[in-house]
Amino acid sequence: MIEEVKSVDVSLGTALEAFRRAYSVAQDPQERMLLDWHLANLEYANASLMSNLSMAYWDQDDPYEMGGDHCFIPGGNETFVRSLSEGLPIFYERTVQSIRYGSDGVLVYANGQEFRGDMVLCTVPLGVLKKGSIEFVPELPQRKKGAIQSLGFGLLNKVAILFPYNFWGGDIDTFGHLTEDPSMRGEFFLFYSYSSVSGGPLLVALVAGDAAIKFELMSPVESVNRVLEILRGIFNPKGIAVPDPIQAVCTRWGKDAFAYGSYSYVAVGSSGDDYDILAESIGDGRVFFAGEATNKQYPATMHGALLSGMREAANILREAKRRSNEVDSSNSLLRVRFGGKYLDVGCLSLCLYGLISRNQAIKLSEEEGEENRMRMLNQEFGVRLVGRKGLSGAGESLITNIRSAKSNLEDGGIQR
Fold first, then answer.
1. 346 located within any domain
2. Which domain range does residue 387 map to?
3. DSSP string covering 209-268, please?
4. Are residues 306 and 334 in the same domain?
5. How far apart are CA 226 and CA 233, in angstroms?
6. Which of 50, 43, 28 is nearest to 180 (CA)?
7. Does 98 map to a domain?
8. Which phi-psi region, left, alpha or beta, contains residue 59 (left: φ > 0; alpha: ψ -120 to 50)?
9. What's the pTM value of the predicted model, to 2 decimals?
10. Is the domain of 83 the same as that of 124?
11. Pairing relation of β-strands 105-110 and 96-102?
12. What angle do CA 298, 11, 123 make, to 5 degrees?
């Protein structure tokens, strides 16, 4: 059913414009500006142009939306990051170029350094995966590459400006700005006041849609001047002077080599299933993926990214336990050679065999003295030593594998 819908999917922008024309909606210029503001707000929520959004699935996460009010975090999101990263070894200025994975583990190459592990969690933004900045060896499965290509990764930019005083009103949390140009409807269309949580008179202006793309072609000075022009157009007619800012910061997420965008959206021809595919581990539980673009229920959100990390932590722990159980349950072949005082017969030596677990083999190797090892075998492990003919099929299989490995080594090494 989903594949059928994908084949006839169109953009949300196309559908809404057809509806607007069919029912003569927003014919008045004032109504049109108001409609454009709401469309800009949709483009902000999805970090993309309306023309890119899937009409069928753009809001597929709505049923999972959390209730309650939106809120600001005093001190910013960095408060969470610092708390969660406390005590963790973090290597800065190490840009990952390659992730190589196989049955023997994972190798991560970054700035000429090699990091080895049993498993790896990849949390880079979808934009980085789309760009192909990281080489995966072997290549990512076609199913995952398809999801990376199908999902959209959009753009939202912000300008944060610190003023000498609050001129917009202490009780105002947000206010908007309308424009007559539909192509620039997302240009600083919404302002957030952070005065109550930042400790100072701080305004954040949002740039969405097509305006967010054009914004990255402007210099920071031009961007801030444009914000001030809009603010003065709003407040000067009310007799309120807008002062020059003390400090300003402009984002450029589209040009950021560690992001190449802001957050994901469901593009035309895509669906929520692509989020699930992106979340799948690869390499028989060697490489795991987390991030907002792997969370079908809460994409494009900070809490979605956080929850995906918790999900993958549980998956990694489950996989580690599975591998540990496999090691514990796998058998090692023990050969005990008897000679000298241990034999009353005329032969020089006698070899007996037994099957023990890997953990038992490790514990046995740590025990000192032959008599102590024999006591551990018999009394603690309950292992019965037998002749070659008394071995089970598992024992014979181990002997065959050992001989094969020795033969390969004698022929010049194991071939991969």
1. yes
2. 330-410
3. HHHHHHHTTS-HHHHHHHHHHHHHHHHGGGT---PPPSEEEE--GGG-TTTSSS-EE-BT
4. no
5. 11
6. 28
7. yes
8. alpha
9. 0.78
10. yes
11. antiparallel
12. 30
pLDDT, tens digit only, all 416 positions of the chain: 455 445 579 999 999 999 999 999 999 999 999 999 999 999 999 999 999 999 999 999 999 998 888 777 777 888 888 998 999 999 999 999 999 999 889 999 999 999 999 999 999 999 999 999 999 999 999 999 999 999 999 999 999 999 999 999 988 889 999 999 999 999 999 999 998 888 899 999 999 999 999 999 999 999 999 999 999 999 999 999 999 999 999 999 999 999 999 999 999 999 999 999 999 999 999 999 999 999 999 999 999 999 999 999 999 999 999 887 765 556 777 787 776 555 555 555 678 878 777 778 888 888 888 888 888 888 888 777 877 776 666 666 666 766 666 666 555 543 33
Number of H helices, E strands in the chain: 14, 15
Q: Has residue 107 been placed in a domain?
A: yes
> Which of 302, 324, 346 delimits the end of a domain?
324
Q: Looking at the 3D structure of the chain, how many domains does it have?
A: 2
Based on the fold, state whether residues 367 and 399 are members of the same structural domain. yes
412 φ/ψ sector (left φ>0, alpha ψ -120 to 50, else beta): left
- Considering the domain architecture, whether residues 336 and 406 belong to the same structural domain is answered as yes
DSSP H/E element including 115: strand 113-117
- Residue 282's SS3 state is strand
Q: Are 59 and 45 in contact (CB under 8 A)?
A: no
CB 406 within 8 Å of CB 399: no
Q: Distance (Å, rounded) from C-alpha 149 to C-alpha 131?
A: 10
- The C-alpha atoms of residue 85 and residue 90 are separated, in whole angstroms, by 8
- Report the C-alpha gap between 193 and 187 in whole angstroms: 17
